[in-house]
Protein: Glycerol kinase
Amino acid sequence: MATSYVGAIDQGTTGTRFMVFDHSGHVIANAYEQHEQIYPEPGWVEHDPVEIWENTKSVVLSGLDEAGLDAEQLAALGITNQRETTIVWDRESGKPVHNALVWQDRRTTDRVEELQEAGKVEEIREKTGLECDAYFSATKTEWILDNAEPLKLQSSRSRDLRSRARDGELLMGTIDSWLIYNLTGNHITDVSNASRTMLYNIEGMHWDEELLAEFDVPEAMLPEVRPSSDESLYGHTDADGFLGAEVPVAGALGDQQAALFGQTCFDAGDAKNTYGTGSFYLMNTGNEAVSSDHGLLTTVGFQLSGEPVQYALEGSIFVTGAAIEWLEDVDIINNAAQTAELASSVDSTDGVYMVPAFTGLGAPHWDGRARGTIVGMTRGTGKEHIVRATLESIAYQTRDIAEAMEADSGVETTTLRVDGGAVKNNFLCQLQADIIQTEIARPEVDETTALGSAYAAGLAVGYWDDLDELRSNWQVDREFDAEMESEQADGMYGRWDDAVERSLDWAQEE
Structure:
């Protein structure tokens, strides 16, 4: 019999990746395609769901082809996805009624402020573990139902989207649901993605009737919620479809929970930080949903079949890798690899601080009207200072989260496991260790988001036996110990709050 593997579809903010892993967690195939970022107005961010699905099929086929694999060799498929990004589509045709509203999209800030003024923030936090913010899916779904142009139906005149949603003719989901629907025909999400909608009660583990009423989102349009690793399976790919094989689709995790799982953070107190478009710092809190007094989110970490839910505390930083992309966009650098060279060419930023609040600020500030700011420039400021200040902003934002995490959990972080594209930058990893004054551990396989979803799917079908087997796969590539004196790190970090203060509540016109 041909050797079997597990495939992972990693649908991210800027593109879609397909990876295949063997039993040791090593990468056998890797294919990637970018998709268009659509900015209809300032602060609005959209994706084309059809383009995402077409790209998904493309990367799966090209990944298998380049590795010389047949689809029949896939024991299972797992999915991981950009969270909160929201799609509403027609149940019968599968056609989206509007572009996806991306997690970065701020168009519903006014609605969030209405909820804040109405005193509903604490109720939302108690039910969902989330801050009341435009980041999440609830206000995005509400906006689409209120504002999207209704589909023109062949059989009848165009009808109000809300009426169609109440009649079960429309489906809503995050990207995982969209992909599972297109792969299997079933409307399913996992507990980790459901917990990011601001519609899901994470204590009772059900769609919350009061929140559905608040946002006028009919339960008929919501997906069934399943474990992240599901022995009952989400379904199979169609033997007559693009893969030409019936492959079990058995696991799904929001991207940050997938990275937590891929970093084998299976025990309470284990923590990881993923450096992607944004950065997301998660700590496993076990079977207890720990509430935050410091602007962190309480979220579902993952759930295995037949087992209790594991929760996590999360610090969401909206812009980190995207700040490096911005440096490219404005021609300060030619490519991301240049940042380490330029930043290390100077001893400091000469007092320059960059706050990359391009889409507002997440934890612990939660200011949707904050905007990007560079302060402290003089006539002697060069691009190398701005580049270094940008890398330092990533480290400072992460320290914001680390301090909040320790205050809420009472657990001191001794080692932080890191992953994502930016951690290939040794300068950034060392800077992060210095600013947090904590050991940074980078694993050999740094695509831990895809790996985590592969692990979830593989466990469900028995490809891996248990969590201990996965733990044995985790290998350190390099560790970075703090080299900077704590007094110097504290001094640099001390002015960060001053810079953040100047970025807050800026976008008054939106």
In short: Residues 383-409 form the longest helix (27 residues). The mean pLDDT is 92. The longest strand covers residues 27-34. The chain has 17 helices and 23 strands.
